[in-house]
Amino acid sequence: MPGVYPVYKNVFKIGKLGSASVSPTDFVEIADLETFSPSIDGTVEEWTPMNTEGWARALMTGKKFAVAFSGKRNEGDEGNDYIAGLAWKDGLECSTKAEWTFPSGAKLAFNCVVNVTTPGGGDSTNVDGLEFELIGDGKPVFTPAV
């Protein structure tokens, strides 16, 4: 259905088995996420050939993307526990798969590296925080809404 949507209609799932996640049951939502900020960075090569009279040409030759999240630490939630558990790991242990379902029904499936940036903290009267990034690893698969 066309129109505008509230941000909470976006659904993010993480592969709880790391890069071995393949079946739908391997993917779980991450409880208590409050904000997300996607970013796409394009690699653009520019050149100025003689036949364009000084006007530059350009071509998108690569892309990278990431999604940063901020939320609360929810011990006992499978997705939240999986992300928090990667804070002290490195290498391939931080590689997994993720899915982003947009409010329109479109879906982005991608391999990623989980970078936990804040494994907890806040004021003494706050709920413990959890912040992390999903950094795209390779080309994602975008499926348009039906």
Secondary structure layout plus pairing:
Blueprint: E1 11-15, E2 27-29, E3 33-47, E4 57-72, H1 78-85, E5 95-101, E6 107-118, E7 129-136, E8 141-143
Antiparallel strand pairs: 1-2, 1-5, 3-4, 4-7, 5-6, 6-7, 6-8
Give a brief rundown of this model:
The chain has 146 residues and is mainly beta.
Textual characterization of the structure:
The structure is a single chain. With 146 residues, this protein is mostly beta strands. The protein has a single domain (7-143), classed as Factor Xa Inhibitor, CATH 4.10.410. The protein has one helix spanning 78-85; strands at residues 11-15, 27-29, 33-47, 57-72, 95-101, 107-118, 129-136, 141-143. Strands 1, 2, 3, 4, 5, 6, 7 and 8 form an 8-stranded antiparallel β-sheet that branches. The longest helix has 8 residues, at 78-85. It is globular, with a radius of gyration of 19 Å.
Alpha-carbon Rg, integer: 19 Å
Distance separating the two termini: 10 Å
Under the CATH scheme, which architecture would be assigned? Irregular
Q: In sequence order, what are the helices and strands, one letter per element?
A: EEEEHEEEE
How many helical elements?
1
At the first level of CATH, what is the class?
A: Few Secondary Structures
Shape: globular
- The domain count comes to 1
Give the mean pLDDT. 96
Unreliable stretches (pLDDT < 50, length at least 5) are none
Helix fraction?
Answer: under 10%
* Beta fraction: over 45%
